[in-house]
Amino acid sequence: MTLLHTVRARHRSLGAALAAAGLLTTLLAAAGPAAATPDPGDASPGAGSRQSADLAPGRSLAPGEIPGQDEIVHSANVTPLANIPDAGLKGINSDLAFQGDYAYAGNYDGFTIYDIADPKVPRIVTQVLCPGGQNDVSVSGDLLFLSTDSSRSDDSCNSVSQPATEKSSWEGIKVFDIKDKKNPKYIKSVETACGSHTHTLVPGGRDIYLYVSSYSPSEAFPDCQPPHDGISVVKVPRKDPTRAAVVGFPVLFPDGGNPGAPEHPGVSKTTGCHDITALPSRDLAAGACMGDGILFDISEPEHPRVIDRVQDNVNFAFWHSATFNERADKVVFTDELGGGGAATCNEATGPNRGADGIYDITGRGDQRRLVFRGYFKIPRHQADTENCVAHNGSLVPVGNGRDIMVQAWYQGGVSVWDFTDSAHPQEIGYFERGPLTTDRLGLGGSWSAYYYNGHIYSNDIVKGLDVLRLDDRRTDSAKRVRMDRLNVQSQPEYH
């Protein structure tokens, strides 16, 4: 493990990102009503200026307008406060977690710890070099967990890429002690079947549980054999996290799940889950599992139990993530059409593909059902050179029976939208930059955008950490909600 403290600017070529983008474009054109591919993978971030620390004031967009290259635009109720450019880590910036006055940002090459005590002047505390995309991150007490879903030569932070066809290859969960923020210590690894694309922290009493989501098994992969129809459950004893281990692999799809194409053209076959959001206070979780969306009971954390399952074989290509509303009577599922590397926020793709699907939860107990109500997609068309699709977001905890969330859309930027009326959601604020490139499809934009203690934090693939302030009478009540931690996939009880 290497600590990086030197801040330096750099430019990188599009390289593999453009090769991946060309493949995605082909898939989108050929797959009919929808097409599904994995996340951007090990593609390189796009070109364009990486630094924008001195944020311009920005302006609002005219209807139908696409901003200029790298131009900052935003609605009147959103104010960009700060940007911390990449420093040291060369990979794709990924997910975020928060604890106290710190933000933890994943990167395919490791993770960064930011001091956000003053959101207008965030600063890098340290960076840890530990390659293994996606490096999705969560924190609990003095522990930090990283997901590794790229086949590595071993479980160390000095590992190199190695084919998954080799039995000695490693993927899974890495555990760090972060008591000393300037000097995190790698203390444990847990190998999991098919790696760990994402993970969800489920707090228990004496133990922490991690629900590990992964997918795409193959007969050629010794550690990722089909059928892969469930999730790995990792148990982490709080008093001795070095004893962390897999304690089960609950099967969520005994019938195999969505068969995908050719029965459902353009739809992903379900071979595991992409992401799970737990709502521990209600003993509920919602899973986005490639071709299926599920609601399940987690009252026994080692034995999650599916209550209901839904599919959308018309407009959803790849069920990517889930968010409950505050009253736990709705779930927003995202569709990552094109895998995050395609231009799908345009007129040709339309408003119902690569969008959010809003589902009401009806009934009680085991009779609860997910009932589709409507779609939401950002109303601002993006250039055909901009990767854009629904991605990671969180609630803005406004309370009072209103449902508002903030969400990342890659190069579509950051959107604040209201889904109080499930059938008629609407955008109420936004922040975005113009295209990274104007001649070819580039890979960039906001990977995750979350609301934490009065501000929006966005981890941009290319530009680094953005801090935004939201000033709107519809969301002002959220500023009074103060939290000591936030792992978005372990959704808290805000009020």
Describe this structure in words.
This protein is mainly beta. The chain is 3% helix and 38% strand. It contains 1 helix and 31 strands. The protein has one helix at residues 15-30, and strands spanning 2-4, 72-74, 78-84, 93-99, 102-107, 110-115, 123-129, 134-140, 143-152, 170-177, 185-191, 198-203, 207-213, 232-237, 245-248, 275-279, 284-289, 292-297, 305-310, 319-324, 330-335, 356-362, 369-376, 393-395, 404-408, 414-418, 426-433, 446-452, 455-460, 464-470, 485-486. The strands form 7 sheets. A 6-stranded antiparallel β-sheet has the order 1-7-6-5-4-31, with no helix packed on it. The longest helix is centred in the first third of the chain and has 16 residues, at 15-30.
What are the key terms here?
single chain, 495 residues, mainly beta, six-stranded antiparallel sheet, five-stranded antiparallel sheet, 1 helix, 31 strands, 38% strand, globular
Q: Report strand order across the widest sheet.
A: 1-7-6-5-4-31
The geometry reads as globular
For the sheet with most strands, the description reads:
6 strands, antiparallel
Secondary structural class: mainly beta
Q: Based on DSSP secondary structure assignment, what is the total number of beta strands?
A: 31
Radius of gyration: 20 Å
DSSP helix fraction: under 10%
Weakly predicted, low-confidence segments: 5-38, 48-54
What's the end-to-end separation, in Å?
Answer: 40 Å
- Number of H/I helices: 1
Mean pLDDT: 91
- What share of residues are in beta strands? 35-45%
